[in-house]
């Protein structure tokens, strides 16, 4: 929820090529961001997710290649990524809805595929990382909260 942030502003910042690095870096797992291309409604980029497994005993850097497609008239964004040489695939459908008080509700539906062995960790850590990053969305809109 982004109180006081009009839907046009929320949609523009959370989908634009000029803000994409800031959005990705809201995740504590993300590093080494690189914009590949920004052509109209399709933005391609890559970054590294720094994953800890076995209680932090093993640390792994997973290169992620991602693409997001913006649907301005529907106020939606479709995100697709591949990591670990195509073994892990994530799809996110992000929607934006105006609230009665003039703010914006941002929600995501996440789906993906990965090897059975990765599933428990991927689901648990992915959910935690997504919630933590989405809870930081308001930091991208400090100018609306002055």
Explained architecture:
- With 146 residues, the chain is an alpha+beta fold.
- The chain has a single domain, classed as 2-Layer Sandwich (Alpha-D-Glucose-1,6-Bisphosphate, Chain A, domain 4), CATH 3.30.530.
- 21% of the residues lie in helices and 45% in strands.
- The chain is built from three helices and six strands, in the order H-H-E-E-E-E-E-E-H.
- The protein has a six-stranded antiparallel β-sheet.
- The chain is globular.
- The model has no long low-confidence stretch (mean pLDDT 93).
The pLDDT mean sits at: 93
Please give the number of β-strands. Answer: 6
- What would CATH call the class? Alpha Beta
Q: What would you say the CATH architecture is?
A: 2-Layer Sandwich
**Secondary structure category:** alpha+beta
Q: Which strand order does the major sheet show?
A: 1-2-3-4-5-6
Q: What is the CATH superfamily?
A: START domain
Low-confidence segments, ≥5 residues, pLDDT <50?
none
Radius of gyration: 16 Å
Proportion in helices: 10-25%
What is the CATH T-level topology? Alpha-D-Glucose-1,6-Bisphosphate, Chain A, domain 4
